[in-house]
Amino acid sequence: MPYGPTPETSTAPASAAAPRIVPPAGRPGSARNLSTDRRARATRALRHASPALLAYAAVRLFGAVVFALWARREHRDVWHLLAESWDCDWYLRIADKGYANTLGTQIDANNLAFFPLHPLLIRAGSVLVPEPRGAVGLTVSVLCSLLAAWGIFAVGDHLYGRRAGVLLAALWGSLPIALVQWMGYTESLFTALTAWSLYAVLTGRWIWAGSLAALAGLTRPTGVALAAAVSLTALLTLWRTRRAKGDGKARVHTLLGALLAPLGWLSYVGWVGLRLGRWDGYFAVQKLWRNEWDGGVATLRTMYDLLAAQRPQLFLIMVTATLLASVALFVLSVGDRQPLPLLVFTGLLLLIVLGSKGVYFPRARFLLPGFPLLLPLAATLARARTHVAVTVMVAAATTSAAFGGHMLLAWMGPP
Questions:
Q1: For the chain, give me the number of helices (H) and strands (E)?
Q2: Residue 265 in contact with residue 282, Cβ under 8 Å?
Q3: pLDDT tier, 343 (very low <50, low <70, confident <90, very high otherwise)
Q4: Count of beta carbons in the 10 Å neighbourhood of residue 295
Q5: CA atoms of 45 and 373, how far apart (whole Å)
Q6: Which of 29, 123, 230, 381 is the most core-located residue (most Cβ within 10 A)?
Q7: Is the pLDDT of residue 245 over 80?
């Protein structure tokens, strides 16, 4: 599929008798008219995406209600679990006190492993909403999850049509650990930036694509996968059009997109190196968190041990099933000849997640931003009869709600 905006054709009748309506203020092309036009387009886009947003919100509200009732029965604090527990607390403390300025030797203790955009948003929002603790982080995640669902729909709609886009957004909200999307974690923020960056690539908006990828690189370590997808696609586009007599401005925008994409990730990694006084400072921090890349040896060993165990923990079985399903879906995505930026992003994301020898249990969460892996399922369901699609989605939402509750209430560890 070629990358670039699809020319829009007008459906209005070309009648010579039709009166020309001129806005009362400003000439055509004025700043006021452009602003009005942008608002109108945004309203139309939101209306077009509304079924996906409603479907996503319904799925997540169902999961949240199930979790809240389950937690109440277990006498657990819902607010603490969603807004203050595990990584939520790390981000809140970074927002309050900033980053460490030394490497240290303690395992799993240096907060420089956490990227800065989410804590910066928490710090900015806490000026307006200082209490309760975690309110800003949780609000950012919920709002970003809706933006992510919108961007995911936009990608699916662009490639396979509106129905596939709706199902793609609903499937993302029905993943086994989708409850994390409504916790004070970074997955929703990162997925929103990723979805809209990839959509910008598919529609030829290169500066937007690079800028959003740069922000994603300030959000999670796997932002490097998105940066690579944007930059590689942009450079290949420039190579393919090198002899074409095209718009020089468009070529400049494409090059700028390629250059902007990795700046966020490189900036934070470089800043950590300067802060610690060593060029490999960030990688030294990751080593203390045992996040080194070994090509997947540790992952395969853990999978083997789980399969050989007599009574493996349910949460770890779910993580393993998610990883294996993700690999299978990537193979299907390659077979479907998905656009290059989607394949590069999901392929590198899988390599990073599966190739690390760090802790095993958060691997399913790390793959949450890999929504293009769900495209083969969404496209298949879009072609199915309505009752089949509804049955599958109800089953997926119910399973997601059950695993979400188990993840935070029975699995006594981080998601």
A1: 18, 0
A2: no
A3: very high
A4: 12
A5: 24
A6: 230
A7: no
Query: 186 near 115, Cβ under 8 Å?
Result: yes
The pair of three-digit structure tokens given for residue 282, joined into one six-digit string: 């960030």
pTM: 0.92
Nearest CA among 108, 191, 147 for reference residue 365: 191
CA separation for the pair 379, 33 (Å, rounded): 38
List, for residues 106-140, the tens digit of each pLDDT value: 999 999 999 999 999 999 999 988 889 999 999 99
**Could you report the per-residue pLDDT of 248-260, keeping only the tens digit for each?**
888 999 999 999 9
Cβ neighbourhood burial of 330 (10 Å; 0-12, 13-18, 19+): buried
**Token pair in block for residue 62:** 């169902």
pLDDT per residue as tens digits for the range 14-26: 333 333 333 444 4
State residue 9's pLDDT score. Answer: 35
- Cβ–Cβ under 8 Å, residues 107 and 288: yes
**In angstroms, what is the C-alpha Rg of the chain?**
23
Backbone angles phi, psi at 356, to 5 degrees: -80, 150
Question: Quick check: helix, strand or coil at residue 175?
Answer: coil
Percent of the chain with pLDDT over 90: 83
Contact 415, 86 (CB under 8 A): yes
Bridge partners of 356, per DSSP, are 293
Q: What is the pLDDT of residue 4?
A: 46
Tokens of 212: 């959003």
Q: Is 131 exposed, middle or buried (0-12, 13-18, 19+ CB in 10 A)?
A: exposed
CA angle 85, 90, 94 (to 5 degrees): 140
> Which residues touch 219 (CB under 8 Å, ≥6 apart)?
115, 117, 118, 186, 189, 190, 193, 264
Alpha helices in 186-313 (DSSP H): 187-202, 206-217, 223-240, 248-260, 263-276, 281-288, 297-308
Q: Answer for the pair 100, 114: CB distance below 8 angstroms, yes or no.
A: no
Q: Which two tokens stand for residue 2?
A: 């070629």
